[in-house]
């Protein structure tokens, strides 16, 4: 008996039949963390959790290993009940470190 192949509703959409987007077509957590650090002055650890990046600290470590200079400090954006941290991108690999703006 011949096999009949039909097109699935996800054909051509970049989504495999099991509903998973191939890795080559999605941002990695590494890329998302770097983008978030680039776009904001500082990013709170709870913001990473809200964006479904539960191991952002590990991705920050990876970025530091690549030469990014990232500051870790207590969160100044929110009034948390527990100690939360935020991260700031100070410099990319090969760039001089950004300095704090002097208050005059």
3D architecture notes:
The chain has 104 residues and is an alpha+beta fold. The chain has a domain at 26-91. The protein has 3 helices and 3 strands. Strands 1-3-2 form a 3-stranded antiparallel β-sheet. Helix 1 (29-39) crosses helix 3 (56-65). The longest helix is centred in the N-terminal third of the chain and has 11 residues, at 29-39. It is flat and about 45 Å long.
List keywords for this structure.
single chain; 104 residues; alpha+beta; three-stranded antiparallel sheet; 3 helices; 3 strands; 26% helix; disordered N terminus; disordered C terminus
Shape: flat
Mean pLDDT over the full residue set: 78
Distance between the termini: 84 Å
Number of strands: 3
N to C succession of SSEs: HEHHEE
Compile the SSE list and pairings.
Blueprint: H1 29-39, E1 43-44, H2 45-50, H3 56-65, E2 69-74, E3 85-91
Antiparallel strand pairs: 1-3, 2-3
What is this structure, in a nutshell?
The protein is an alpha+beta fold. It is built from 3 helices and 3 strands, in the order H-E-H-H-E-E. It has a domain of 66 residues.
